[in-house]
Amino acid sequence: MAALLRSARLLKFSPSGLLQIPGSRRSGAPLSRLYSGVPVGRNTGVCSRQLGRVSDSVSRCVWPYTAGCVRSYAVATEQKDEAGLAVRTKQAQQFDWALTKLDSSVRRTGRITKTLLMRIFHDICRAGYPSGNHALLLLRSCGSLLPEVPMEERNELAHRVWNKLQELGAQYDVSHYNALLKVYLQNEFKFSPTDFLAKMEAAKVQPNRVTYQRLIAAYCQNGDIEGASTILGFMKSKDLPITEAVFSSLITGHSRAGDIESAANILSVMRGAGVEPSPDTYVTLLNAYGEKGDLESMKKTLEAAESADCSLMDRDIMQVILTLAKAGQQQHIPEMIERLRHERGYIPDAMNLCLSLITQGHEDAAFNLLKTFPSLQSETDDSPNLGYFFLRHCVNMGTALEKIVHYCKELQESNIHTSSFTFTLSCALEAKNLGMSLELMKTLKEENLPVRPHYFWPLLTQPLKENNVDGVVEVVKGMVRLGVAPDLETLTTYILPVFPSLEATLQTLKDLGVSVDSEVFVCAEIRILATSDLAKTYTLMSDPSFPPLDLSLFRSSLISGFKKSSDVDSMVKITELLHKDERFSAGNSNPSEATSYFLYNLIDSMSEGQVHAQEDKLRSFFNQLHAQGVAISPSIYRGIRNLLDSYLCPELIKDVHALVYSKERDSGSASLATGDENRVLALERKLAELKAENKPLNSVLKQTIHALSVEENLQRALELKQQYEDDMSVGAYAILISLCCRHNNAEEALNLKRELSRKDSLVTLDPIKYITLVKTLSLNDKVEEAVDILKEMKEKDVMLNDIHITYIFHMLNAVAAKGGIPTVRRLQDTIFSLGLAKPTANLCSPVVTSYLQSNDPSGALEAALEYHKLYNQLPRIHDITVALVKKGDTDLLQKVMDFVSQERGEMMMLYDLFFAFIQTGRYREARKIIETPGLRAKPGRLQWYAEKCIASNQMEALEQMVEMTSKLFECDRDEMYSYMLRLCKETNDWQKAEATWTKMQEENVIPRERTLRLLADILKSNHQEVPFEVPETWYEQAASPTQQVESQSPLLEADGYQSRLLTLCKKGKAKEALDVVKEVNERGVALGSLSYDHVIRALLAQGHIEDAMVVKQLAQSRLPGFKLSEIANNLLIISYSKRGQTREALEKLKSLLQLNQVPSHLAITRLVQALGNQGNVAEIQEVESVVKTLGTNVNLSKMLFVNNTALAHIAKGDVESAVELLEGIYTSPDSSKPSMSFVFRKVMESGNDQALDRLSAMAERLANHFACYRPVSDLFLQLLDMNRVEDAKFLLARFNVLAEQKEMLLSYVSYAAQSPGQASKIKNLLSLVPDFAEKKFVYSYLMKCHALDKDLRSAKALYEQMQSEGVVPDDLFLKRLAVLYREEGETAPFPEPPETFKFYAEKLRKEASAKE
Predict the structure, then answer these.
(1) DSSP assignment of 690-758, as one string?
(2) Do residues 780 and 744 make contact, with C-beta atoms less than 8 angstroms apart?
(3) Over the Cα atoms of the chain, what is R_g?
(4) If you count Cβ atoms within 10 Å of the first and of the last residue's Cβ in the chain, which end, N or C, has fewer?
(5) What is the pLDDT of residue 1004?
(6) In this structure, are residues 556 and 1104 in contact, taking their beta carbons and an 8 Å threshold?
(7) How far apart are the C-alpha atoms of 1265 and 350, rounded to whole Å?
(8) What φ, ψ does residue 1049 adopt, rounded to 5°?
């Protein structure tokens, strides 16, 4: 054998030679070394280095080589497929898709899940046309890339793939047989190499060198040196090279044949043959010694490798660890573990090794390796929870319960995983392992850990689906043994639906030892009745013996029952009962408030379609409620009104409004309008009185002039100015100048401006007023004066923004329209030279426009050329070209084209001419232009003209352009026809749209989906038949079963559903999304986890917890590893908290933390508030301690817990403790004086006057004794907010310092202005604090309130008040007021600021920050 090997030589061109590693002395690793991500042992011979690195290096070391090999493996002998081009294209697309999926999995984890592999396999089978590449991809994935699957199962899977794809027509070549051999070696499958060769021969496939190498490895794996020698002799006769892989296989073969000495001598034989041993070779020898348990020889081999400069990586040592574990040499594993250097990529490699060890029954070795994970050694993590994968796989592989319990205890004691028992239980529940789950729960009880009813839900899911009473009973027995009583959700969702009746359920539960006398069973009974029989529900609820039961526990069932029922009378009786009977309201709310919220929830739970469909029923319901004296609060009415507004149901709003408390309704309908109709006369009388009394007139004079300005009474305004000239303020002059400009009185405007400058030369007007004045002067031939104004603007550094530039453009256009071209040129020169604005085509266009309007295209051309020369701008060149074409002036037209060609290029010139000819109807000439040889499509220019045609409704010109460009090089024909269809949609011309569709077919245009949808919309809106299947981006049309098998990929179908679900969720149509999920489930299609999570989040956002849990169960039935996302868990906490189910919310918070997820601010806030409402001080403290463990991840205010703890004390009747707690916070030396407004508000809302008195006394004591004014300020603002104005006034009288709390008062005003109906609160504040320092800001917020309330009358009054007080409104104020005027169909007395609200808000923000 040695002689035979010594005569062998390497072939230069070999796979190893193709993978040269820079800087090394040897060829690169075999493909197996680069492909595999999981260790399967050194005994596989040619599969030498199995464990590939992942993380950052995985893309370099593991998968890309594989991808390349997968693509190229079958090139040598692949036969031509006789299928058509379409089939081959489809194969290529599917292969890329499958490769991407597997590539992503390997890049992230270094392994593939069986679920993913089977999905791809089934999808390829359904497509019906598997290619050779598909077969290679699937076969190679059946080996060590599946560490979580036992080897026997991997082999079965490989055979299944092989046979199935062969049935479907896949053509196998030598690469496929080699791939199967590789899988056999990785999975240690026992097979006959001779039979394998015979099968290849029968299939007329010739083995190659790789085949022989792997057959040698197969012989050596079994210690059959004789068989390996036979293959070696054959290889020599064929002059095939003997590579390093063969030598490595022989080391394994000699070792397993019992000749370890010969195995060691292979290294010297290699060197003699000219092959230098590589790390692969040393690892193979280490494995050989490891199987014998020869630790000393292993150490010597390691030293030899180091001395030969063959440094072994962690993944090499991991191969040895796996070999030791499989050989039963557990005692040597710690020695190898100590040699691990924790290189980059260690964690994923080690995870895959752990999974392989567990799969092969070596859990202890895996556990020892788990404890070496570097990140576990960090002492900075307060609550590490690592090892999830280990515990999950132990459960999935059925590891003995005693071992699992031992691992959990050690992980917990070592602080490696602080919730190991709970997590392991969740894994057992996911696996539906009843026995293990119950035993683990028993262990949890022994460890003093809680066992909750919802832990049993996964165990109940399957019996519930199968309607298996015995299965449910078995689980309930387990609950009884563990002392866990079924809660409401468990009972109503999982237990009751299985039994034929409630009585049968109660009897069975009694027999099992479950107490059925609790509130839970009463609530379950009422829930069932509410959804099916409202009359019986009322009978039961109205019984005096019926126990107290909070409405929130059965509200959703009651609403659901009403929506399905036509029994309005019973629902009215139930609602009346809820309104009057305190048994159905929580302790902190009265029955009428609970009923109000119930009505709001009823409307909120209905979609727009449901409201319209049941409008008569709802109207009857509301009218009967009104007759019975049921009333709701104004705030709830506003909420219902907003919902009905969005549903377009104005008639129902009137019926709901009748339910509002009569006192509130009367006050709301009272007129707010006050004042004198002849305000100007009153102001003038006031002026006379002030003049007689020799008092200042400035403010009233300005107000009077403004009032006259509103009435456009220039004459009287000038008379007043003349009469009170000495008292004229800057604001009054500005108003008067604007009024003169509007009346085109340039002389008076100029005189007023000069007078103002004489009075105060530093005064600067608003830019718009300057521009308006320039316009007026220019239009009245006072050009020099206008230029002087522009110069003044430059001297006074008047800054112009885009809005002002637009004003300048319109000003120049107005001057040009009057024929003042020299004036426009003079103004332009001045503006550009002074730098007030930069030259643009827009600002240069007025002169050109003027020439074009006077039908002088030659003058327009000369002007345009001059502007180009001066400012490098070419305004309105298209319009000039069109005018010249219309006029037929070929000389000037040639001049234009020559100029454009020189400046912008010949192609741009041709497009200009093309568009001009189309615009003028000269289609023949246009066609000649577009057919110019070498002309290419310019999408930007084509789109520009198409948009121009659409905007001006020019169908003929657009149609001609589309037709003429049919042969234009690189022209997107679908895009062109889509322009026509857009215009058809604008004009609602379905006949033209249909004709366009016919032309597209004639031209053989392949339309995009958006084009088809656009055409379908046009036809459907005109009740025409759509002559094609309408594609939906968010929905895949349901196909027949036959079509599904033949032509539709379930994964693509699932993608269609997923897109639809995402759209529905974004639109807030959670119930519709739920219906789609149920439909998908019935069809047997599995969605992605993200789709399920989106639906759950949408349902939870609307408070539908039960429906969300249904979706969760469906998801878990399809995706065993499904978990709620962090957002969904947070929403669930919020929903539970809103319902008052604080126990469930707290448990969900804890489970969220166990999953290493971070609770949101809102989730914690809602939970703490709910606990405060219920008086649960201890649980608030528990939540606070949990939040503290999160560090900076959740940066919550300490006052959240302080305020709600105080409220909890108050809820329990312990006001003293609340006062003591809050007082301690404010008297602390390092106190930041936080807000306690929340406490005051809650106490006031609850009507707890005793608590309010004690808290008020505390606030006053802190103010008087400690000069701490924050609590008393909070009290003052809350009194205002609750409309207790007299109390607030009394408090302010005792503490004048409250009027000086500027920041707090402004903050309150800002907050109040966020919602409609708050204007009165701001007015109350102003009445109490008339000398407020920041009145301008308060007025701005007050205007915002009027805008939200659509109250133009109050807005006008406010504007007049500001004018009278001399307060200059900002642009945002004016914008809001102008919009109000416009919406009411009136004209604003000032030009509307042209920019958006956001623009002006940002402007004010910047100004405020600049002042700071």
Answers:
(1) HHHTT---HHHHHHHHHHHHHTT-HHHHHHHHHHTGGG--HHHHHHHHHHHHHTT-HHHHHHHHHHHHH
(2) yes
(3) 42
(4) C
(5) 61
(6) yes
(7) 66
(8) -75, 130
- Determine the 3-state secondary structure of 37 from DSSP: strand
Long-range CB contact pairs, 1337-1341, < 8 A, 24+: 1337/1306, 1337/1309, 1338/1306, 1338/1309, 1339/1367, 1339/1369, 1339/1373, 1340/1369, 1340/1370, 1340/1372, 1340/1373, 1341/1309, 1341/1310, 1341/1312, 1341/1313
Tell me which residue has tokens 């082999």: 155
Other residues' Cβ atoms within 10 Å of the Cβ of residue 1009? 11
What span, in angstroms and rounded, lies between the C-alpha atoms of 282 and 267? 9
- Cα separation, 1278 vs 1274, in Å, equals 6
Taking the whole predicted model, whether its pTM rises above 0.85 is answered as: no
Query: CA distances (Å), 1256 to each of 1090, 1215, 1229, 1275, in order?
Result: 51, 12, 22, 7
Least confident of 208-222, 570-584, 1055-1069, 1304-1318: 1055-1069
Q: Percent helix, strand, coil in the chain (nearest 5)?
A: 70, 0, 30
Measured between alpha carbons, how far is 46 from 281 in angstroms, rounded to an integer? 10
**Is-contact 608 647, C-beta < 8 A?**
yes
Interval 1275-1331: pLDDT, tens: 888 888 888 888 888 888 777 777 777 778 888 888 888 888 888 888 888 888 877
For residues 460 and 463, what is the distance between their CA atoms, to the nearest angstrom? 6
Residue 1213 three-state SS: coil
C-alpha to C-alpha distance for 11 and 936, rounded to whole angstroms: 54
The Cβ-side half-sphere exposure at 143, using a 13 Å CA radius, reads 30
Of 117 and 18, the structure prediction assigns the larger pLDDT to 117
Residue 824 near residue 815 (C-beta atoms within 8 A) = yes
- What is the DSSP track for 370-411? HTT-GGGG-SS-SS-B--HHHHHHHHHTT--HHHHHHHHHHH
905 by Cβ neighbours in 10 Å (0-12 / 13-18 / 19+) ranks as: exposed
Q: Is the pLDDT of residue 670 over 80?
A: no
Can you give 582-634 as a three-state secondary structure string? HHHCCCCCCHHHHHHHHHHHHHHCCCHHHHHHCHHHHHHHHHHHHHCCCCECH
Task: State the Cα–Cα distance between residues 1064 and 87, nearest whole angstrom.
Answer: 35
Q: What would the DSSP string read from start to end of 1312-1373?
A: HTTSTT-HHHHHHHHHH-TT-TTHHHHHHHHHHHHHHHT-HHHHHHHHHHHHHHTPPPPHHH
Backbone angles phi, psi at 1130, to 5 degrees: -65, -40
* Bridge partner list, 385: 417
Closest C-alpha among 125, 143, 145 to residue 134: 125
**Looking at residue 185, what is its pLDDT?**
92
Give the HSE-up count for residue 1077: Cα atoms under 13 Å, Cβ half-sphere.
33
CA 777 from chain centre, in angstroms, equals: 56
Structure tokens at 880: 């000039």
Sign of CA dihedral 485, 491, 495, 496: positive
What average pLDDT does the chain have?
79
What six digits make up the tokens of 369? 């390796």
For residue 1197, what are its two tokens? Answer: 């205010």
Q: Is 151 left (phi over 0), alpha (psi -120 to 50) or beta?
A: alpha
- Burial, 1412: exposed, middle or buried (Cβ in 10 Å; 0-12, 13-18, 19+)? exposed
Among 507, 566, 502, smallest CA distance to 540 is for 502
CB neighbours of residue 1178 within 10 Å: 9
3-state secondary structure of 965: helix
C-alpha separations of 725 from 693, 758, 1307, 1358, 1404 in Å:
17, 13, 41, 26, 34
Strand partners, 191: none
- Do residues 918 and 941 touch, judged by C-beta distance below 8 A? no
Alpha carbons 177 and 162: distance in angstroms, whole number = 10
Cβ pair 713, 743 in contact under 8 A: no
Grouping H, G, I as helix, E, B as strand and the rest as coil, residue 960 is: helix
CA-closest candidate to residue 877, choices 906, 857, 907, 856 = 857
